[in-house]
Amino acid sequence: MYPYKSVDYFSVDDLLTDEHKIIRSSIRDWVNKSVMPIIEQAAQKHEFPVYLIRELGELGVFGPFIPVEYGGAGMDHISYGVIMTELERGDSGIRSAASVQTSLVMFPIYEFGSEEQRKKYLPPLAKGEIIGAFGLTEPNHGSDPGSMETKFTDKGDYYLLNGSKMWITNSTIADIAVVWAKDEQGVIRGIIVEKGMEGFTAPEIFGKWSLRTSVTGELVFDNVKVPKENLLPNVKGLKGPLNCLNSARYGIAWGAVGAAMDCYNTALNYALERKQFHKPIASFQLTQKKLAEMLTEITKAQLLAWRMGVLKNEGKATPAQISMVKRNNVKMALDVARESRQILGAMGITDDFPIMRHIMNLESVITYEGTHDIHLLITGHDITGFSAF
Ligand code: TGC
Ligand code: FAD
Questions:
Q1: Residue-wise pLDDT tens digits, 66-89
Q2: Which residue from 131, 152, 182, 310 has the least number of CB within 10 angstroms?
Q3: How many C-beta atoms surround the C-beta of residue 229 within 10 A?
Q4: Of all atoms in ligand 2, which is nearest to the CA of residue 389?
Q5: 363 an active-site residue?
Q6: Are residues 86 and 173 located together in one domain of the fold?
Q7: How much distance in Å is there from the Cα of 225 to the middle of ligand 1?
Q8: Mean pLDDT across the stretch 293-317?
């Protein structure tokens, strides 16, 4: 493994504040110390290093843009992005843990929850004392969550929840899950389900070749009695979960840049060191083409993420813009990872280097939070007015 050097070909650092740089440096140090030494083994063993959740909480990674009074850090959206870049440089599974906790659990509770729900759940989520999950996808409804079948009925004193969710990050280890389900009128609502509620189980999905440092599973609800105060009062309809996705997709757009930088840094160092035909492979035009194109694409993605952050800070970011940047940056990272692996030849498939792990991770990242093609259709809808779903 080579010392990590991030990419800054267009002096993007000049666009960051001192605070952004301090946050970046603290997360980078933590990733070097706590993630890099253990991550290849964790991925080989298909294990999520769950003890890192507390450390992430202490670092202030959960809910950086949530106000301080609820346990967040009250920072801006570029800070959140910078954090995600550093975490995903380490591993997409670690970034996933932060995405889910921040954007998919804390965000809806903050944005759509009651004051009591905010006070009860946000501070322990911020500290990593409890872990959250987000249940939208179902076995029969992935890209089309509006057709979900999970539903609840009003039983007077409580709601009775039935149905199941599939492919849920953190499912088995989550203390609470923000679950999206239809009420008796067929309106989608958010409801907080807690571990230990009778009839609620969370079996793990085994056998993943991708995102192996993250727990993925199901959420199964068999006549679960959920207290009425667990309903998120302030949102109705599909726009509830989709608003959470806007925040998570934005973070992923920044995160993917970190994975790409790690692959590029590895490939560049290897190419300078490795000799064939008595010359460094970095001296061959074909290697230089790969490296130059990678650097160009990373730089473009970096600028796109930064601009997205500025728009988000100004409250002007549109969902369609976020779709575009998530789609572009994740595909960019996957392409960079694949090209980097070529540069390393056979060594590229081993866990002596991070590249194969990043490639496998990014195969999930390009699918979750809306697939590559769904995001293209969102852009198509935005520019033509026609929905092609
Ligand atoms: P459509 O009729 O277009 O919209 C329904 C309502 O939602 C509103 N809306 C949005 N609101 C906020 N943000 C967005 N991005 C929104 N997109 C749409 C829309 O205005 C409308 O509101 P209203 O008031 O008129 O009712 O909905 P549709 O059924 O045609 O579906 C559209 C589509 C395809 C965009 C959407 O369903 C979609 O994005 N599908 C992809 C599903 C997805 O991304 N799932 C992710 C699951 S979570 C996950 O993967 C976590 S991974 C975690 C990790 O480990 O990091
Ligand atoms: P499908 O929707 O069945 O799509 C299959 C293929 O068909 C895709 O290529 C898709 O692009 C294409 N397709 C679908 N509709 C159209 C169309 N109209 N036009 C053209 N092509 C189309 N979900 C959660 O709710 N919470 C989580 O925490 C979570 N974590 C995840 C973690 C991992 C590791 C993974 C892999 C997934 C996770 N997901 C989670 C689920 C994820 O969001 C879904 O996998 C994703 O939305 C796609 O749904 P699907 O897998 O059912 O694919």
A1: 999 999 999 999 999 999 999 999
A2: 310
A3: 12
A4: 18
A5: no
A6: no
A7: 27
A8: 98
* Helix/strand/coil for 316: coil
- Based on the domain organization, do 351 and 274 belong to the same domain? yes
Mean pLDDT of the chain: 98
The string of pLDDT tens digits covering residues 110-154 is 999 999 999 999 999 999 999 999 999 999 999 999 999 999 999
Q: Which of 189, 212, 230 is where one domain is finished?
A: 230
Assigned token pair, 207: 């056998």
With respect to residue 104, please indicate whether it lies within any of the assigned structural domains.
yes
Model pLDDT for residues 364-383, shown as the tens digit of each residue: 999 999 999 999 999 999 99
Q: Cα of 98 to ligand 1 centre, how many Å?
A: 21
Predicted model pTM: 0.98
- Number of separate domains in the chain: 3
Same domain membership, residue 267 and residue 380: yes
Which of 374, 378, 386 gets mutated to test ligand 2 (max ligand atoms within 8 A of its CB)?
A: 374
DSSP 341-381: HHHTGGGGGSTTSSHHHHHHHHHHHTTTTS-HHHHHHHHHH
